[in-house]
Design the sequence.
């Protein structure tokens, strides 16, 4: 079946602009996660959605970052007033159920470059 | 702070050999453990998961978990040049059905399998 999809695959933006990144999880997966991976850095958790529960936003690095998930499916990660340090690959993952004990599958990522 | 430690490598093995990748984690309450393979320029791909102490085998891959020692490993038998990639260890604090969704990742071990 179809995996996690993300768009755009690449995004170049000027410092100070806002960007929106989109994620379509695997059909039937109730949990959705955003991570980012900077050059030479590990994978950094950003936010986690599970069903109708309040999202776990504990990984968002600043209030310039926000995310929403509409209809329990598609999610959008928004970065306002982008900075150069926001340049990274933004990865979305989904899992069949909540929390541990369910495997997370990653999409191809969106490479964000802030100039 | 939840730490997941891996040797960064590079680990270099000849084709046909066994590659052994190791990971330690700091939180004794961790419940779920995952190994991802990441080719250069690609997103992480889930290759193994293990939730109970002991060994779990899947084809050429074996995951080993020792919760008492807070240690998880991945063995790759009959290594192939196509196994050359970075291997990421990931840990989740929750068991199935918990709300603890985020994964904590190590920095990864770079594996090279030479012909």
Sequence:
């Amino acid at each position: 079946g179809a995996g996690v999809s993300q768009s755009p695959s690449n995004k170049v933006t000027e410092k100070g602009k806002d960007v929106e990144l989109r994620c379509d999880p695997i059909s039937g997966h109730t949990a959705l996660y955003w991570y980012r991976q900077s050059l030479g850095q590990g994978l950094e958790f950003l936010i986690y959605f599970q069903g109708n529960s309040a999202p776990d936003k504990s990984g968002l690095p600043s209030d310039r970052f926000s995310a929403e998930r509409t209809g329990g499916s598609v999610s959008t990660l928004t970065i306002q007033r982008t900075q150069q340090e926001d340049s990274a690959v933004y990865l979305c993952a989904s899992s069949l159920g909540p929390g541990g004990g369910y495997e997370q599958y990653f999409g191809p990522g969106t490479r964000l470059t802030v100039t | 702070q939840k730490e997941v430690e891996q040797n960064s490598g590079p680990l270099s093995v000849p084709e046909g050999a066994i590659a052994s990748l190791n990971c330690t984690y700091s939180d004794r309450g961790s419940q779920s453990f995952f190994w991802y393979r990441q080719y250069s320029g690609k997103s992480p791909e889930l290759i193994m998961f293990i939730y109970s102490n002991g060994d779990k085998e899947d084809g050429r891959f074996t995951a080993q978990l020792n919760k008492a020692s807070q240690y998880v490993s991945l063995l790759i038998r009959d290594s192939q040049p196509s196994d050359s990639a970075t291997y990421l260890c990931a840990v989740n604090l929750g068991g199935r059905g918990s709300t603890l969704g985020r994964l904590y990742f190590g920095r990864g071990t770079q594996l090279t399998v030479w012909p």
Notes: Chain B has a mean pLDDT of 93. The longest strand of chain B covers residues 85-92.
